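Predict the 3D structure for this chain.
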Amino acid sequence: MKSTAILIASILAEAGALVSAFAPQKDGGRLSTAANAETKFKYENEIGAQVPFGYYDPLGLVYEADQERFDNLRYTELKHGRICMLGVVGYLYTYAGNRLPGVEFDGKSWEDIRYGFAAFQDLSEPGVLVTFATIGLLETFVMKDVTGDGEFLGDFRNGFYDPGWDLFSEETKIRKRGIELNQGRAAMMGMLALMVHEQIGVPLLPEVVSNIPAAIADVAVDAGEAVSALSAIKEAVVEAAEAVSDAVSAVVE
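Done. Predicted structure below.
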């Protein structure tokens, strides 16, 4: 019960961060002044205010917010989105039965580690500690603007890795940053759904085929049988057509 309460609290916090986007909340029903109008649309042209929702902030989290507050929310949104994109991929990868080779600290095979929340019950204490230590190291020394030369919030190249970003036009850069935001938002909702459905015991994902090669072979066999059946039907139709033709010829004669 306690873990469920913690999960619900984290869900509400994540949902609050997710809807931080881009539309004002009414202040007592009065937004008629020029000052309020200026505040209302202050961030309407920021990256992320895009189709299908446009400028959307139903909780008013950026209403009357200064640039520092907005930047903090945007940085949090980017970070949560990136984490959830990795999380969804990792969840689906392990849910499908895939594991990395090797053994865990107590000699247990990675194959014996379940997916989702159950993994924390299967991992040894050193394994859990190493997991969180790795996250801490990445957070402290890697996933941040170490050099201070980032061009925008979330630019973590740090002069070490550049996949050719500078070769893109400004229009393409803006489009790609918007794509990242949208995919991160979708991943946050996806990760939230996976967590909730796992905890309440309601399956969200379909049953996984454990032996994919065998399944593919079965599909191939079924396809072959279907092709054979179609060939037989074709031959039967041809024979029937020939019989009809012969019958017609006999009548004419």
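Confidence is low (pLDDT under 50) at residues 1-8, 17-35.
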